[in-house]
Amino acid sequence: xxxxxxxxxxxxxxxxxxxxxxxxxxxxxxxxxxxxxxxxxxxxxxxxxxxxxxx
Length: 55
Hints:
Blueprint: H1 6-25, E1 34-37, E2 40-45, E3 49-54
Antiparallel strand pairs: 1-2, 2-3
């Protein structure tokens, strides 16, 4: 469980989204259509590419 400040949480979530986007760009998780990360889930949307969602 995260016990830091709200600002720290937002910064970590932003970093997790950025890393997830990089993983998606490399094709990681492409077989299942989604990749779960500590900061959220990235999913492939047909015709739209990858999207990143917070948990």
